[in-house]
TrEMBL record:
It catalyses: D-mannitol 1-phosphate + NAD(+) = beta-D-fructose 6-phosphate + NADH + H(+). Pfam families: Mannitol_dh, Mannitol_dh_C. This is Tagaturonate reductase. Keywords: NAD, Oxidoreductase. Residues 298-502 form the Mannitol dehydrogenase C-terminal domain. Residues 40-276 form the Mannitol dehydrogenase N-terminal domain. It comes from the Bacteria.
Length: 510
């Protein structure tokens, strides 16, 4: 059985042509080729953007509303295998939308053909520079995780790749500025999808810091501010990625081709973007009938989603992995772990939100139903990447709510923090960091290299000095490079964390 490629796409289009879904048939048959002029640069090759943004581009193209193509690159060198896999499939992949829509089971296959280019910027830096100088380029979309939009001083060496995402953008914008003589109409629209508060503002601020570091002209920095738009946005869709192997093999047998980049997503989707509705002419997703909202404020959308949906993910993930649980649904169906998540969200997180409590409770129940989607198998290991930065954004504000009132942390949030720290009790083995679950099984931990080194060193020192668990907890909580503040000063938090660790040592896992 061959892998998905352009020839397979033509065959799939013929098969889909027998169905009433004519748009899907046209798209699959190649009516909208993936060699269209590049109008979008996508920084992020992972499951989420492919199951969210790229699907939206495909839907808009099927309706004749959007005619540009997407160039995709990875933000980190480690993403090269997925770029290679995309090129090995003629930059095509299959998205299965599967779940419950208004209580009814839904399963749709979409063949996504929006990528005009897929390349590794660390191997072909000049290709990325040429793209930045292209007159057709209009939009930059990204998902580099919360840790990606961060300022870390970095030297500018002409001709060599820049590691950080904001640093890349600063340099690429400078090349664009030079290429078009600072023309006001040649700026770009930036749509960061990272789950970071005011993500557009944060990206713009970091870009300007790099420009100042490198001594780029003041006129250029003014052009960055006046000619470019850095929009704050919030995304919401569960994209589970590759399904379990049994389901994948069943689909491959049915479709007649294999797809190493097969991706599964739920039907629900929301993209709230802080910008004027007229921008839909440039990115016509709302016009295509998608749940894209142009709004003058993201705050209500952001706060409820980040604190409840994403917060619950980050709450459950370290503890679930330590307990040997593999999937979100499996955890939520567990009598003890599922109750822990529901109780913590309902009794500890929702009361910290400044919105009607009944509305927040209704939203939380909707989220839990999405977690229990029988058709999506969302791996905790996929959610676990960069859990420290995720915790800072998603759960730390709820903990801080109680600390600022001089109160001890509620039990569930304290346990979530204890699980996070225990999850990061790691050691370096060759080129990766690994931790050990409660049952002795080993797991890989993916995070910012500096954060991993800090945590590994702290746990190693705890073992060598034989300090008490509370001393270890206090030292970890005091690390401002991890949290942005000294958490060891919060009332009784170190003692609470140490107490939870003691319970786990005795075999009590929640």
């Amino acid at each position: 059985m061959n892998k998905l490629n352009r020839q397979q796409l033509q065959a799939a289009g013929a098969a889909l042509g027998q169905s009433p879904d004519k748009h899907a048939a046209n798209a699959a048959a190649g009516a909208y080729p993936n060699d269209a002029p590049v109008t979008v640069l996508q920084i992020g090759e992972g499951n989420f953007l492919r199951g969210f943004f790229d699907w939206m581009v495909q839907e808009s193209r099927k309706q004749g509303l959007f005619r540009g193509g997407v160039a995709v690159t990875q933000p980190r060198p480690s993403g090269k295998p997925k770029i290679d896999a995309l090129n090995g499939q003629d930059r095509l992949y299959t998205l299965v939308i599967r779940g419950l829509d208004n209580g009814e089971p839904v399963e749709r296959r979409e063949l996504i053909s929006v990528f005009a280019e897929a390349f590794d910027p660390y191997e072909d830096w000049q290709r990325l520079v040429r793209l930045a100088e292209s007159p057709e380029l209009r939009i930059v979309v990204s998902n580099t995780t919360e840790a990606g939009i961060a300022y870390r001083p970095e030297a500018l060496t002409e001709g060599e790749p820049i590691v950080s995402y904001p640093g890349k953008i600063a340099y690429l914008l400078y090349r664009r500025y030079l290429a078009f003589g600072g023309a006001a109409d040649r700026g770009l629209l930036f749509l960061p999808c990272e789950l970071l508060d005011r993500n557009g503002d944060a990206l713009k601020e970091a870009v300007l810091k790099y420009a100042a570091d490198w001594g780029l002209p003041e006129a250029f920095r003014e052009w960055v501010t006046t000619a470019n738009r850095f929009l704050n946005s919030l995304v919401d869709r569960i994209v589970a990625g590759y399904p379990d192997q049994e389901q994948a093999e069943a689909w491959f047998a049915e479709w007649g081709y294999r797809d190493d980049l097969l991706c599964v997503a739920e039907p629900y989707h929301l993209w709230a973007i802080e910008g004027e509705p007229e921008l839909d002419e440039l990115l016509p997703f709302a016009s295509a009938g998608l749940n894209v909202v142009w709004t003058d404020t993201l705050e209500p959308y952001r706060k409820r989603k980040v604190r409840i949906l994403n917060g619950a993910h980050t709450l459950m993930t370290p503890l679930g992995i330590l307990c040997g649980v593999e999937y979100v649904r499996e955890l939520m169906e567990d009598e003890t772990l599922g109750a822990f998540v529901r109780r913590t969200v309902g009794e500890e997180i929702i009361p910290t939100l400044p919105y009607p409590q009944d509305e927040m409770a209704a939203y939380a129940n909707e989220v839990f139903d999405r977690y229990l989607n029988p058709f999506v198998r969302h791996r905790l290991s996929d959610i676990a990447m960069n859990s420290v930065s995720k915790f800072k954004v998603r759960l730390l504000p709820s903990l801080e709510h109680y600390a600022l009132k001089g109160e001890r942390a509620p039990d569930g949030l304290a346990r979530g923090l204890a699980a996070l720290l225990r999850y990061y009790r790691v050691r370096q083995e060759e080129n990766e960091y690994r931790g050990t679950a409660f049952d002795g099984r080993s797991y890989a931990v993916r995070d910012d290299a500096e954060a991993l080194a800090t945590l590994a060193a702290a746990w190693d020192e705890a073992g060598r000095t034989r300090e008490t668990p509370e001393e270890t907890a206090g030292r970890l909580l005091a690390c401002e490079t991890l949290w942005g503040k000294d958490l060891s000063q919060w009332p009784g938090l170190a003692a609470q964390v140490a107490q939870v660790w003691a319970e786990w040592t005795k075999g009590e896992r929640t």
